Task: structure prediction
Amino acid sequence: MLAAYFATLVWQIIWHGLLPPPLGAGNAWLTLIACIPLLIPVTGLVRMNYNSMIWAGLLLLLYFAIGIMEAWSNPPQRLPALVQVALAIFYLFAFRKRNQSTP
Result:
């Protein structure tokens, strides 16, 4: 679960900051704007705080929606957007699995 969250954070840096156009933006400001919301619940996630996990899931739903929108409307960025969607889905299912295994 933490791996999926941190992979999403790293993916924002790769996609928006390092990939050249048309696969990415190559824009430092966009990278910063994409990463700041993901940094908010990091301390709670590392401590495995349940409320932080919920908020992280809600944030990743936003990134899921952005990924779907980019994949639908911007064909050159379809593959990076679908990677973002897959990471968000992985986090949500990993969170569900961990939550069910706890008595």
In short: The chain has five helices and no strands. The chain has a mean pLDDT of 89.
